[in-house]
Write a structure and sequence with these properties.
364 residues, 5-stranded antiparallel sheet, 2 domains, Beta-lactamase, alpha+beta, Peptidase_S11, Beta-lactam/transpept-like
């Protein structure tokens, strides 16, 4: 909203009398358009979306309800952030522990004292079920102090959060994602959850962290290192987000990558090879679409202006289908002015303006 208001206000600036003729610059020409071949994925459901632009890029059984496994912990994290402070300490109890032979865990012991931030880290980085159960118990006590089973109150809050986010094909029955009848999520719904997680600075940092040291206080004070279960973090421009694996769910993956200044989220559910599926889908997207950023990397004319100390007021990225990428061009309208605003730059596809941004003179 602030950027829209900025454009509206700057758009009312009086133009100088002398105007330099428009200069049009196209991106470097691409090879002749060839439609990208759709990948064959092992996942039963998949979805890809540019969450910055709000553009759906791929959908295959995207609204099919399927078991979520540990991707559930993304929703758990969102609810925890509503009810618990990052710096408060939680004491681990015996009913927070999970079977280490069956579920991922951080190896917590009864009496351990761990901050909410470190429990979130253990849950999101190492997919620790003991961290998820401890967080759900304490947050549930906060949500409904009169409830006989605090985790049930927490699960109710998870489903309320799902409704608030507009999820249509998801129902949560556990905070850790273990296989239970009726617990489902769709690929599209998981992309919405991931967008909410990535909008939270603390959670966004944690889901992108490869390793983290956690401080444990109490009778058995110690430090442990948690390692991210998400192997996709090694991919270029990867930003997280979460894995999940169970007998009922198969291999699940929610992944985020940066394209220009935009974030693209991929979701794969019930896959037999989630990382191969993710790479194949991302390769397809990069062949099917192009991302243009309003800067000198995409347009040579803007690089030349930057050397003069003239830059766009905003630097948005747009995604366009590759078949129309050669129609994208930037049009620069210079004004002779001593003011900070010295013109406008328009990104146009065909005869339609995608956006108009003021050009500013900056100190070099």
């Amino acid at each position: 909203m602030a950027s829209v208001l900025m454009l509206a206000l700057l758009g009312t600036t009086t133009r100088a009398v002398a105007v330099v003729p428009e200069v049009s610059s196209r991106p470097a020409p691409s090879s002749a358009y060839q439609p990208a071949e759709r990948p064959t994925l092992t996942a039963r459901a998949s979805f890809a979306v540019d969450i910055t632009a709000g553009v759906e890029l791929w959908a295959q059984e995207a609204d099919r309800p399927l078991p979520p496994a540990s991707t559930t912990k993304l929703m758990t994290a969102l609810v925890v952030r509503r009810w618990l402070r990052p710096d408060e300490s939680i004491t681990i109890r015996s009913d927070d522990l999970v079977d280490p032979a069956v579920y991922a865990n951080a190896g917590f012991q009864p009496g351990d004292r761990v901050t909410v931030t470190d429990l979130l880290a253990a849950m999101l980085i190492a997919s620790a079920g003991d961290a998820a159960l401890a967080l759900a118990r304490v947050a549930g006590e906060r949500i409904d102090p009169e409830h006989d089973v605090p985790r049930t109150a927490f699960i109710d809050a998870m489903n309320q959060e799902a409704a608030r986010l507009g999820l249509r094909h998801s129902w949560f029955a556990t905070p850790d994602g273990r296989d239970v009848p009726g617990q489902t999520v769709s690929a599209r719904d998981l992309a919405i959850i991931a967008a909410a997680v990535l909008s939270d600075p603390l959670l966004a940092e944690l889901v992108a962290t490869r390793t983290r040291e956690i401080e444990i206080a109490g009778p058995q004070s110690r430090r442990i290192t948690v390692v991210n279960t998400n192997q996709f973090l090694t991919e270029p421009d990867a930003l997280g987000v979460k894995t999940g694996t169970s007998v009922a769910a198969g291999q699940c993956l929610v992944a985020a990558v940066r394209r220009g200044n935009d974030i693209v989220v991929l979701v794969l559910l019930s896959s037999r090879d989630r990382y191969a599926d993710a790479r194949a889908l991302l390769t397809y997207l990069d062949r099917q679409y192009r991302w243009f950023t309003l800067d000198g990397r995409s347009f040579a004319e803007l690089a030349r202006l930057a050397r003069e100390g003239i830059v766009p007021a905003l630097v948005p990225t747009v995604v366009v289908a590759n078949e129309t990428a050669d129609q994208v061009r930037v049009i620069i309208d210079r004004q002779h002015s001593s003011a900070d605003v010295v013109g406008t730059v328009r990104l146009r596809i065909g005869t339609s303006d995608l956006f108009i941004v003021p050009l500013l003179r900056v100190e070099r």
